[in-house]
Amino acid sequence: MTNLKTDIFFWNGHRMPLVGLGTWQAPDEEVKAAVQWALEAGYRHIDTAFNYQNEGAIGEVIDEWIKSGKVKREELFITTKLPLIGNSPDKVERFIKLSLESLKLDYVDLYLIHFPVGFLPGKDDTDLFPRDEEGKAKIDMATDIIALWKAMEAQVDAGRAKSIGLSNFNSEQIERIVQASRIKPANLQVELHAYFQQKLLRAACANHDITVCAYGPLGSKGRIELNAKRGLPPPAIPGVLEDPVVLEIARKHSKTPAQILLRHLIQENVVVIPKSVTKTRIQENFGVFDFILSDSEISMLDSLDKNDRTFDFKFLAEATESPEFPFHIPF
Predict the structure, then answer these.
(1) Which residues act catalytically here (predicted)?
(2) Is position 265 within any domain?
(3) Deepest of 44, 85, 183, 297, by most Cβ within 10 A of its Cβ?
C-alpha cells in the first residue's frame, strides 16, 4: 500500500510529520541511542523540551547526521518547549536561545509554551519546578499568557522558530490567544489516546485551523510507576494497549496494539509522538504507513473514549490555584 499521508500542514504552509519520537523521561545516553535508531528507521520528527534536560544529547546526534550528510536540516522537524520558569515575556528569547544552543540548531520547526502556568525563578535554570522553604511550588500567579504569546511571536520574526504553538492549554485559553494574536498557534500538544480522545478540544482547534499533536498516544503505559513515584494509587482503568477491541483489530491486521492505536490517531489527522528507548519499539511505532483502518474499525476505536486523563499536573498542587491552571474546565 503506497501514498498514505505521512505529514500534515500548518495554516502557514509548514509541514509536520505525523509520527515523531517523544523523548520525555529519557536520560542522555538512552536518548542518544533512541534518536539514532529513530533516524535510521525513517523518523524525521523529534520532540523534546527544555524541561526534559536532554536537548544537548539530542543535538549531538542531529549534528552528526547533518554534518555527515545523512540528512539535510530542512528534512528534519524539531520541536522544543519553553519551560515553566520561562513563562514570562522577558525570558522567552533567552530560553529559546539556550535550547537552540543545546540542539546545535539555528532554528526549531516548532516552539511551544509547555504549560500555561508559570513558576517564579529558582536558584538557576536547572531548578525547573522551584519550591520555597516550606516545599511549596513557587507559582507565578500573575502569568500573562497573552503577553507571553507576543514574545513567542517575536521568535518567529527573529527566525528562531518556524512555527509556534501551545501545550496543555484549554479551549478558553486558546480562544483568548487566537483573538489577541498576530501569528496564531500552529499546533496544540496535549495528552490524547483512545481512552482520552479530547474530541471537543480537537474541534475547538479545528475551528481555528490549529493542528493537534498527541503525547502519551499509547495511553496509561508507565502510569503505575508514575503514580507510585508520586505517592498516588494505581490507575483504576487498565491500559488501552490491553483493550479487547484494540487486541482484536490488531489480530485482524497482523499488527501490534500500539500500531493500531497510533494508526487510529494519524488517520484522524492527529500527530503522534510515542516515547520509546527500545530499538524494536521505535521501529514498530513507525510501521503505521502500510495499512488502513476501516471506517467501522475507526468507529469502534472512537467508542473507547473514557475521558481518562493521566497527566493532570496535580503533583504541582499549588499550580491548581493559578487562574491559568488549564484543567478546571472540561476541555
Answers:
(1) 52
(2) yes
(3) 85
**Distance, CA of 248 to CA of 165 (rounded, Å):** 36
* DSSP string across 175-190: HHHHHH-SS---EEEE
Q: Residue 106, class by beta-carbon neighbours within 10 Å (0-12 exposed, 13-18 middle, 19+ buried)?
A: exposed
Rounded to 5°, angle at Cα 322 from 316 and 324: 110
* Domain count for the chain: 1
Q: What secondary structure does DSSP assign to 28-60, as a single string?
A: HHHHHHHHHHHHHHT--EEE--GGGT-HHHHHH
CATH number, domain containing residue 114: 3.20.20.100
Q: Answer whether residue 242 is part of any domain.
A: yes
pTM exceeds 0.70:
yes
Tell me the catalytic residues: 52
Q: Which residues lie below 8 Å from residue 298, measured CB to CB, with a gap of 6+?
A: 264, 267, 268
Was 114 annotated as part of a binding site? Answer: yes
